[in-house]
Design goal:
Helix content is about 65%, strand content about 0%. With about 150 residues, it is mainly α.
């Protein structure tokens, strides 16, 4: 799925841009900067996935969701590190390709997650973890990391 979202779809988008005559943008050190950003933002998602597996004993997938509320590691700074990572990866790919539509595609993915999937996820977490999740949700922001660690 990751390959499809981060590489196949962007490649198709770039082909459509070319057919429409939309010029890709460039800037000095574009490929290097984009690659570094991709690796850095990927580390956020990897950290979240490892913490989810080790502490929560599960994955972000509904069929294998965490059996324990995860509020440590990267989650003690921001509630949705894997969503942030996915959107950031999409933006890094868009920068690498110099594609305005791939950047828009990545931002649209974030908007869809915010408007649809976030509510579903939060309802599920509230149902499963109750007051502990509500306390976490009130003290840790969804998108913008805190500089101080949440201690729960």
């Amino acid at each position: 799925v990751c390959t499809l979202i981060l590489f196949v779809f962007p490649a198709l988008i770039v082909r459509v841009e070319a057919k429409l005559g939309i010029v890709q943008f460039t800037f000095p050190f574009q490929k290097i900067i984009s690659a570094i950003l991709f690796v850095l933002i990927s580390s956020v998602g990897i950290s979240g996935a490892i913490t989810m597996a080790k502490i929560g004993r599960g994955t972000p997938l509904p069929l294998d969701s965490a059996s324990k509320l995860v509020i440590s590691g990267i989650y003690s700074f921001v509630r949705n590190p894997m969503a942030i990572s996915g959107i950031g990866q999409g933006l890094a790919v868009g920068l690498f390709l110099g594609s305005p539509f791939v950047l828009l595609y990545a931002l649209m993915g974030g908007a869809i997650w915010q408007m649809i999937f976030r509510q579903l996820e939060e309802e599920d977490l509230l149902e499963r973890f109750g007051a502990d999740y509500e306390n976490f949700r009130q003290n840790v922001r969804c998108w913008i990391p805190h500089l101080r660690k949440f201690k729960g």
